[in-house]
Amino acid sequence: MAASGMVSTETAPFALERATDDLAEGAAKLAGELGSVPVATVLEDANRTAGTKAGTAAIGSMKPKPTHWYAFDEGDQDTADWYPQGLTGSDDSGTLGVPVFLASWYYKPEAGERGIRVTFLSPETLKYRHALLVLARPDGSYGPIDIHAGGIACHGGLLYVADTVRGLRVFDLANVLDLRTAQDDLGDGKRAGRHGRKFHAFGYRYVIPQTDFWRVVKPGPRFSFVSIDRSTTTPQLVTGEFRGDDPDGWVARWGLDLAGGEPDDAFVMGHPKIQGATSRDGRWYLSQGGETSSHNGKLLVYADGELETRPFPIGPEDLTVQDGALWSLTEFRNKRGIFAVPL
User: 197: pLDDT confidence band, cut at 50, 70 and 90?
Assistant: First the structure.
C-alpha cells in the first residue's frame, strides 16, 4: 500500500555487512606503485574551470533562483557519455583540509565501459578535475567499476558511493594516486589498467582504488543516494532508494563510524522520483525529479511531520549541506551545475 508522507518502517530489510575481502590488499598494492597526493594537490593541479552562467537552463521556472550556481565547463555540459549524480563536500568530511565539492559521474554508453569518476571542485577558484574510481586487485591489476554511483558522501577521509543493488562501496581519499609518480605520461586514453608495463586510466591523471564494501545482508533494497547528517550528537549516514512512479521508496540512517547491521531508523518516503535525501536539525529534505527532462523538480521539506514544497531546478540529484546551505547538482546535458538553496 502506498504511503502518504514519511512513515516509519522496519529496519531489518536494510541491514549491511562488511565485505572487505581483498579490496584493501589490492588498493595497498596499487598505492605501493603509485604515489598518493592530498585533495589540495588535485585542486592545485585542476585542469577545468566551472562558470556561473552555463547550464542555467536547468533553473527553468524556479523562483527564487539558487543562491549559488557553479556550472561544469562546455565539454562536461555537452557530453552524452558522462552523467553527474552524487554530491558531497568538505563540510561532510571535516578532515579534507580545503573547501571542496566532490561529484560522482557514471559512464552511460554500454559499449566501451569506463565506469565512474569523481570531480574535485574548489568553490574558491571554481577550478576542478576528474579522477577515476577503480577496483584494484592484489596481483596489481585494476579496472573501472560499472555502477550508477547515484549518491556519494564523505566522512573523514572515507568516500561512500552508492552501489544500487549491492550497498555502499568505500574509497579512502588518502589513496588519491597520481599516475605521473610512476611515468612521464598518462598512458593510453582508451584503456584503463596496467598494460605493457605502464599505467592507464582513460587519460585521467588520478585514480582512487576501492578499499572497503558494505553489502546488503539480504538482496532487495536499492541504494540510490547518500548523505551525511552532522547536526546529531553522533553523525549519521543517510541513504535510500529512488523509485520512478512508486512512492514507496525508503530512506534510512546509520550511525558513524559505520559498523554495519541494521540502520538506526528507516522510513517509507511517500513520494516518487526521490533522487536525494538528507536530514538536518530534525528536518528531512527530499530532492524530487520532475516529470520529464524539461520539467522542474521539487524540494520536499518535512518538519514536525508537516510538508513544505519548495521550487527546485530541472534534473536535481543528490543532496549535501555545506556552508550552512543545502546543495545539489543537476544531471541533464547542457543543464549541469552544482547549486545552493537555503536550508
Answer: confident
